[in-house]
Amino acid sequence: MKNENKIIITCAVTGAIHTPTMSPYLPLKPEEIAEEAVKAAEAGAAIVHIHARDPKTGIPTSDVNVFREILSRIKEKSDVVICPTTGGGLGMTVEERIRVVPELKPEIASFNMGSMNFALHHLIEKYKEFKFDWEKQYLEMSRDFIFRNTFKDLEHIAKTFYENETKPELECYDVGHIYNAAYLLSTGVLKPPLHIQFVHGILGGIGTHLEDLMHMKRTADRLFGGNFTWSVIGAGRFEFGLCTAGLILGGHVRVGMEDNLYLGKGRLAKSNAEMVEKMVRIARELGREPATPDEARKILGLKGKDKVNF
Ligand code: KMH
Ligand code: ZN
Cα 279–233–44 angle (5° rounding)? Predict the structure, then answer.
């Protein structure tokens, strides 16, 4: 089967949006996050997207040592492509967020394409009590939070990525972010071919309607022609529907507990692997075969797993 038919499934195993109270299955400790990532890869994920959490409390952390532990544990057991976050979590500085790139030199990492509101406070009302003290405060803090990615930041982040041969995965949460990418491409700050992730359903970004995805895709097609690769995220209950639309349109997809905790209505996913398995079933039914990690490396033009620093 040719590479065009291959679908890269990314699994985002823990993130920095959901908190421990929301699911007992959310991996928190480095060994749990690594284990979930390895199992997601065995289920068919070619890329795992990684955030780190404090081993004791589960609060998102930018501690490079925790990232290093997670990434090396995964690499020991799997050849999956490892994509750490540079979006981090609420309240982290840009410098703290991007430290993983020069320190660990990953093949690919997330690269957030603009400043925005990134709100989680609306999730509070769903829970009567929280397991850890930090959770409610963390979610509430997002009411007044600006996810900072100014043009100055973006130039600095891009330079850091290219110095370390790390491919940027451009997280676009709205149409304006695609124009930001086009501008930075025209000034040489970003280098082609771009890899774009259309992120739908974050409060502060574009919604989860099919028209929203079509608009993002049409805009990227118009600005970049055929010279880009792309993937879709649908946050919350729209995850599988929007990913299915993306795969029909020829894109790649991302699933996992960072974006959604449920396998179906009222049914918490017990593992990230279950979510990948569901996506693999849908893909195969619709004639797309999951890419292996090495096929994903080829499709995205990554430097290779022997060139990372962990
Ligand atoms: N949090 C997701 C909606 C990042 O980690 O840099 C997008 C994301 C960004 O994964
Ligand atoms: Zn993330």
Answer: 30
